[in-house]
Amino acid sequence: MGRVTIADVAKRAGVSLASTSRALNGQVASAATVEKVRKAATDLGYIPDSAARSLRTRRTGQLAFAVADVGNPVYVEMMREIESVIAAEDYRLVVSRTGDAAGTLDLVRDLNRGYVDGLILSPLRVTPALVDALEASTVPTVVIGRLPENTRVDTVMADSEGGVALAVDHLVATGARRIAFLNGPADTTPGKFRHAGFLRATAEVGGLTTAEFSAEDFTIDAGYAAAAAIFDSAESSWDAVIAVNDLVGIGVMHAAAEHGLTVPEDLAVIGIDNTTLADVCHPGLTSVDLGSARRGRKAAQMLLARMDDAGLEPRAVRVPPSLHLRGSTHALPSARKAPPTAEPRTARNRTTGRASAAQSTPTAKGTSPRTSGEGRAQ
User: How many CB atoms are closer than 10 A to CB 175?
Assistant: First the structure.
């Protein structure tokens, strides 16, 4: 027997072709008709022709999530949250690797051919050409990351600067005065804004000895190689290192161990992203949570809203950070016999530099279990 068609299902169910189509596509049909059609389809082993259905409905039932590294635990956490939101609306998630800036641009342009109904994009690098392509795209799109001001694309942003400030404040409170920042590639969005946060936070504290270094990538191996070079230097004598992400931070701890440095007694280490890896390394890695789960969930919600109403004004949502303390940093002096607590860091107006009580003011958290979803900042 050849491929079972919708006409075969209609014949078996004893109803019209139009009624069969409505029943299979979730459109208006009586309960009795739906039951007969579904039974006939099951009995015959009918598989819908998704290509033909897409031509009729102009929808694929698929949404894309495009990132630089599909194995990075930050993107995995985002992916889980995105999938949970869109699955409730009967969409499937297609995950794609963007590659370099040119690859990201090609992907955005290719998706205009109708492969998916919507796109969530987290680009490492943002170029003028990419911004133009995003604004011209016919596919509803949400960007997890930073875009130039007034770009007419929905965005969900992390407060990287505020997160790094939390790390600096904690290290200073525990007595660190020589603090290094190990960045990733500086031409990337996280590299740019986390570095800026380090410069701003350390300048506000004052009286610190600081330096900035760069790893070639955002990986454990790159972090290890960069940290090993730092520790081999005759001028290397740091109280603490803030790593651009958890992967680089774990690389720092490996290099420290090989150079005879004990964490945190000889060297405190803080990562960024608060991934699951921060819990499983030894000692546990103190890390700034930039809310990857919450960013993913919010991006999915915004994409579905954009698909329902293309006339919505573009929105920009910023997710606040939090600090999660583990064994790679010293306990606060006032908390060595009790769970650590800290006052919220006062947010500063980016234009005036004056203190402001912003709603997204980051807060420091102790070693309590991590939260997820809307209750967790990213």
Answer: 12
Closest CA relative to residue 332, chosen from 323, 341, 324? 341
Q: Determine phi and psi for 125, rounding to 5 degrees.
A: -125, 135
User: Burial letters for 348-376: b for 16+ Cβ neighbours within 10 Å, e otherwise?
Assistant: beeeeeeeeeeeeebbbbeeeebeeeeeb
48-59 pLDDT, tens digit each: 665 455 444 457
- Beta-bridge partner residues of 62: 92
| pLDDT value of position 353 | 32
Instruction: Decide: residue 142, CB within 10 A, 0-12 exposed, 13-18 middle, 19+ buried.
Output: buried
- In percent, the amount of the chain with pLDDT more than 90 equals 65
The 10s digit of each residue's pLDDT in 97-140 is 988 888 899 999 888 877 899 999 999 999 999 999 999 999 99
Asked if 97 and 68 count as a contact pair (C-beta separation under 8 A), the reply is yes
N-to-C CA span, the chain: 54
Q: Which residues contact 367 (CB under 8 A, 6 or more apart)?
A: 324, 325, 326, 339, 340
User: Rg (Cα) of the chain, in Å, rounded?
Assistant: 25
- Find all residues with CB under 8 Å of 91, minimum gap 6, and list them: 61, 62, 63, 117
Backbone angles phi, psi at 15, to 5 degrees: -130, 170
Query: How, if at all, do strands 286-289 and 322-324 pair?
Result: antiparallel
Both structure tokens of 138: 């016919």
DSSP 8-state class, residue 376? S
Torsion sign (Cα): 92, 95, 101, 105:
negative
User: For every residue of 219-247, which 3-state class applies, written as one string?
Assistant: CHHHHHHHHHHHHHCCCCCCCEEEECCHH
Residues 228 and 260 sit within 8 Å (Cβ to Cβ): no
Q: Look at residue 363 in the predicted model and tell me its pLDDT.
A: 35
20: amino acid identity, one letter: T
Q: DSSP letters along 29-58, please?
A: --HHHHHHHHHHHHHHT----HHHHHHHHS
C-alpha span between 123 and 135 (Å, rounded): 15
